[in-house]
Amino acid sequence: MTSRSVSLYALCGSQRHASSSRRLLEALQSACPGDVTIVICDVIGDLPVFNPDHEGGKTPPLVETFAAEIRKADGLIVSCPEYAHGIPGGFKNALDWLVSRDEVPFKPLMFAHASHRGDLVLAQLTDVLQTMSLQIVQDAFLRLPIAGKSDEAQAQMLLEARESGLLSASLGRFARAIAAST
Ligand SMILES: Cc1cc2nc3c(=O)[nH]c(=O)nc-3n(C[C@H](O)[C@H](O)[C@H](O)COP(=O)(O)O)c2cc1C
Description:
The chain is an alpha/beta fold.
């Protein structure tokens, strides 16, 4: 447990209504240790296509809202599926809006991965996010392979992960890494 509150902003790489990546983030949200809060981002699918001509004073208001949430957060959680051996276009678009801004450098980040597959997207995200100077906390990495399972099986796995302390333990490691870095 950490001594101060930690606010986390969670980014989901899937826009699907029944997204397993999102369900994992929601399970983490419900398993937060007392000093940790998670807000799940809801704007990624609505961001305009990135265009460097629309940065600075021309930045779209929704991008400014997105960036402000990231600035407020002590750390980010990324839960992202693999599409065609890579990063889903909508998610990469969201990241591209942040590349030239000052919100993300040195921001701690943990992965929560909802599949037993997808190692290629994890490797690509690691490369992209490190290029953007985010600090990936490997010790907090969480993998819960619910993707592709029925709604009932997913709910059961998420419940067991919550009750066993798997989810809160990962969040605790992340919160401690954040506390140690500030
Ligand atoms: C367009 C598309 C491409 C995909 N490509 C891959 C892939 O290359 N490798 C993989 O492991 N899974 C792939 N998948 C499967 C998804 O990663 C899997 O369905 C995952 O559960 C989706 O995440 P979500 O449940 O959060 O939406 C693909 C799915 C879609 C829709």
